[in-house]
Structures are given as structure tokens and as C-alpha cells.
Amino acid sequence: MQEIMKSRAKELLADGTVARVLGWKKGEFDYDCTPGVFASEKEIDEKLIYNSLCQSNLSKYLIEESRKEGKVAVFLKPCDTYSFNQLLKEHRLHRDHIYVIGVACEDKIDIDTIKAKGIEGILTISCENEEVKIQTLYGEEVLAKKEAMNDRCLTCKSKKHMVYDELIGEEGEVLDSNRFDMVEKIERMTSEERFAFWQGELSRCIRCNACRNVCPACSCETCVFDNPESGVENKAAANSFEENMFHIIRAFHVAGRCTDCGECSRVCPQNIPLHLINRKIIKDINEFYGEYQAGADEMLPPLNEFKKSDVEPDVVYMRGDESK
Amino acid sequence: MKKLPIEKIDMFFQILSKEYPIYLPVDNKSKVAEFTKYEDGKEWSEQLNTVRSAKDFFFPQVENMMRFETDGKKIEVYDMYEEKEDFIIFGVRACDVRSFSILDSVYLAEPVDSFYKNRRDHGIVISMACTRPNTTCFCENFSIDPTNPEGDVTAWRTNEAVYFQANNDKGEKVLSKVARLLVEDSNEKVQEQKKKTKEILNRLPFHNLDLSYFKEENTMEIFQSKLWETMSESCLGCGTCTFVCPTCQCYDIREYNTGNGIERFRCWDSCMYSDFTKMAHGNPRKSQVERFRQRFMHKLVYAPTNNFGVYGCVGCGRCVEKCPVSMNIIKVIKTLEEK
């Protein structure tokens, strides 16, 4: 797969279809690739990689890349194409400057999940069939692939690309995922338990903004929290209310636009399961307004229009209070 | 050298915690090690290091400095400085202990930062030698010996025991509180463990980085390098590297409206942020390339130039592990050095 991608990227550069290629750049290990722009065949030969550890969603980089001169080719995994579509819908990309190469995704494995199993000193990781072999300073470890995957891939919503100009690898299907299971579990908690759960998670936040900056739905040129003119700018939480406020406001701002790509939780240095907040809102939208998947089609997002049949606010309010 | 059998470690914490608040690395619910105040039931983490560094103890993320309260036309000003009580940080790794002296060179230089000094004067550091270094560790490049950490007390862990050695009066005093648990022992077992650890250290991928290029006379050449553009293109402009870094020391002073007054506090800031050092004329570094370059120029060039050759990095590897896009100081060093 990687070799086919490399030769296609080189062809597209050589025949002038594109001026640059956006892909994953080889790092120091198997597990630390970096998103990168390739402008020459030499660079592609030496550094372009695609393996089961290439997790980054490249779609957000296109906001800048598609504003540069000439066309850019980009590799998008199925879940990244939802983000791409959503960015298009929000007029954030110059489509005519982008050549989308859909690449099949065989489920990614996650370095943080592997480390959380207590595996230390990781030198190399290889994934074949359903087995992950890990060479460490302290010996070899073998995991079943499922044990090395994070929640977003274990509950993958789709192996089908929503958009592409050309496809490498086999096209998959939209999956019947169990991605709302954990949300349901949290819904079943009492409000006190739920509050304690989120307080426990969010109190670890160090306000590094990684979740926001990686999020394809967070594409404001200046975030309200970075803008001294806004009156609510804050670089650190002054109290526990502000601690929660940042994440709650962010979740509401991306409501109906979040495609559930899961990058927020993947990048959180404190392992806060932020994607669960967004999934709760997605689940509510599905229940109140009918099934809707952001980034899947050209349908107007339910939160952007008003229908007489829309759910009444008190229905929403009553649901959150189990005493009624 | 004093020996504590490993089965008595809990008693060690119990006795000391009656005298001082004692903080040690404990795994939280999501299996992340974090410095936690000892109380019954807290277990010392087996992990190599905490995600947040130990700098938090001396340079916390948020700190109130002043409070103003208004009542009609009257305004009352409160100084938030309070003399701290002595506290112990247990299990600090060699990299983090060294970071304290880098922070000292900023905060204890004239004019002395009284908030920092207060914490530093009352903090007692019990360091812990490494036994299972990670592939992302590279402290030895900065003349740090992870088998021989600095601190008020140095400790070594073997399978059966923890060994202690006081390095100053502060350390002696702490060990005297738990004297009845400790027995005098030769350093034979510690030497054995050190030898084992050194063998692992020699196999680390970043064991021998070439830092010779990063010196004062190359400042302009490095600054003007075209490579910053490609290196920074993936940077998200988040503050993860800065906030997990034990030596990053920049802060902002801000005010919070409480409704009937103002809290003036300082908080960590990041040179990666778009509003970092924003002044009346705007932002001095307008693009992410400039911000990215600033962070690494500071660590690798400005710091050694202004601080007798001491780099602004201790090789703890936190940024290497935590950067969302895996763009880090190792890649910067290697890319610039290869040119």
C-alpha cells in the first residue's frame, strides 16, 4: 500500500497535476510519524510512509495548504474524509486546489494504548494480520491488535470514503458501530456520579489547547479564548468552573459539526476522553432530530435550521433530570 | 548508605507524612502517573516518570499574587504571599532535579521572585535513580547521570530495597525522622544496579546526540535556516510541549473579575501561542514558523549562550512522547545539525 501511494504521489508531481503532496513523514521510530508536505520525488522516496501507526487526520492542514499556489494532493483515511467534507461545507477549503487520494484504513494501532498496557522502552512496532509485535529495551511483547487500538478505532463508524478523486486500496462500508455504548453508560449514572466523573476527568486538563488546535471543526481564525478583545480570554483556568467551561463551550461550538474523528482524545496528554462529550451531543441530535452524520452528505445540519417539528426545549430539560 | 527494605516503604511514607506533606508519583485512574499527596492507600507508581513534571511544585500553573476588593469608592489591596510550610517531593528523577537549577537561574537571579523562592526554600527533594529508562530519554547528552540524581536526598531502588544518601543538612534532617526504619549498608547492591542501568542507557537510541553545532557563534546561521519552515509546518501551535516541559518557565500575569474585586494571578504561558507576549503594537512573532523557531532557539542556542553553556533542556523526553504530531526537539536537533 505504502509503495503504491509513493509511486502515485511521484506520478502526480511529475505530470504536474499537483505541486505538493500532504502525507505522513517518517520519524525516529515506527510510531512517531509527523504530518508533512512533500515537494520532490526524492523526499517522497525517502520519507513518505503509511502504516498502521499513521493516525493523524490531515484534513485540517488543507485550510492553509489549499490557499497556497498550485494544487496539493492529500491522503485521506475514511474518517478524515468526513472532516474534509465538513470543512468544505463550511467554505474553509479551496476545493479546486486539492486532489484527494482516499486511502483504505485497516484500523490503526495506538502508541499510547500500548504504553498504557505497561509496555516500556519501545524500539519497534510491527503489525501483521491481527498481531502486534513490539520490540522493547526489555524484551519482546506481543499483543492482539484489538488490545493495541484506541476507542475511536475500536468503535470505527465507517470504512467508506465520503469523498475522493482517486482511491488506493479497497473501499469499505459504513459500519454499524457501537460508539454510543460508553455514552449510554454515562447517561445511566446519577447526575451526581456523572458530575463527579467529568470533574475527575476535566480536572486533569492542563489547557494546552491540543484538543482544540487539532480539531478540524475548530477552524476559527482567532479562538474566543485567545482573543483579548473577547473578555473571556483565558490561558489557564482560574477556578473549577472555568476548567469545565472551556470544554463545554468547545463542545457546543462544534455541535452538529463534529464528525467524531476522535483526534481530540488521541492528542490529549492527560488522556481525557473528550470525544465522549461530542458523542453525547451527536447521540442527542440523532434522537431529537433524526439520524445525522456531520461530513457524510450535503444535508443541512439540524442545528442550522428550524422546523416546527423540532423538539421542545423542556423535553430536553426534563431528560437531564431523573427526579422528574 | 542507608537501606530501607522495600516492604517498609509504606511505613516510611506514613512516618514522614506526619511531619511534612509528602508528594510522590501515584498512578491515577487513567494510569497516568502524577505527583499526589501521600495518604493511606496511595501507592508509589512503578512508572518511569510523571506526565506533568515536578516543576509544578515551585512554579505552579496558576498562582494568585494579589487581590483587590472594592466597596463603593474604597479599594482594599491584599498581598497573597504566604510563607509556605516545609514539604517533601519524593521520587523525582535526575532530569527533573536538574530542571530546578535551570529554573533557579531565572527565578533566583536578581530581582528574586519571592513566590518561587518561598516554595524552593521549603521544598525538600528526595530524588530517585532510574532503573528502566525509556527510548525517548536523552538526559545524558546534558551531562545528567540518571543513576546518580542530585537533590537533598538521593535514593536508589533495587528489587529488595530502597537505598538513601543525604546530600546536605536538609536531607540529613529528613532521614533522621525515619532513622528507626533504616539500616546502614554497603553500596554494593546500588553499584550493581547502576551497572545494569548503564548497560541499558548505552542502548538508548538518543544516547549520543551531536549538540556541537548549537553554540553562540552559529546563532545567526541557525536563526536564518530555511529548515524552520518545513520543521514547523506540522506544528499545531498548541502548548503541550511547553506545559509538559520541566524547564519551560514563561508566564503571563492576568486578572480575573470576581464580581466585587479582582484576582491578579500568573499562569503558565507558551511561546507557541498566538497571543504570547502580545503588546500594544501586536504580537512580536506573527507566524507559527517564528514561534516554533523561538522555542528551540531558546532551548538550544540562547540558553547556553546566556547561561554558561547550560542548555534549556534536560532530556526527559516528555515532549517527544506527548507532541500530538510527533514534532520534537530530537527531530529539530538532527535536522539542523545535518543541514
Main traits of this protein?
heterodimer; A: 324 residues; alpha/beta; 3 domains; 6-stranded mixed β-sheet; 3-stranded antiparallel β-sheet; 9 strands; globular; B: 339 residues; alpha+beta; 2 domains; 8-stranded mixed β-sheet; 11 helices; 12 strands
- Structure annotation, total helices of chain A: 13
* Spatial shape of chain A: globular
Shape of chain B: globular
By oligomeric state, this entry counts as heterodimer
Strand order of the largest sheet of chain B: 3-2-6-7-8-9-1-10
Q: Low-confidence stretches of chain A at least 5 residues in length (pLDDT < 50)?
A: none
Which regions of chain B are unreliable across 5 or more consecutive residues at pLDDT < 50? none
Helix/strand order of chain B, N-terminal first? EHEEEEEHHEEEHEHHHHEEHHH
Largest sheet of chain B: 8 strands, mixed
Q: Which percent band covers the strand fraction of chain A?
A: 5-15%
Number of domains of chain A: 3
Write the layout of secondary structure elements.
The complex is a heterodimer of chains A (324) and B (339).
Chain A: H1 2-14, E1 20-25, E2 34-38, H2 41-47, E3 48-49, H3 62-65, E4 72-76, H4 78-89, E5 98-103, H5 111-116, E6 122-128, E7 131-136, E8 139-144, H6 151-154, E9 166-168, H7 181-187, H8 191-202, H9 210-214, H10 240-253, H11 263-267, H12 275-289, H13 313-319
Parallel strand pairs in A: 1-4, 4-5, 5-9
Antiparallel strand pairs in A: 1-2, 1-3, 6-7, 7-8
Chain B: E1 2-5, H1 9-19, E2 22-27, E3 33-37, E4 62-71, E5 74-79, E6 87-92, H2 94-107, H3 114-122, E7 123-128, E8 153-157, E9 161-166, H4 169-177, E10 183-184, H5 188-201, H6 219-223, H7 227-232, H8 240-244, E11 251-257, E12 261-268, H9 288-306, H10 318-322, H11 329-338
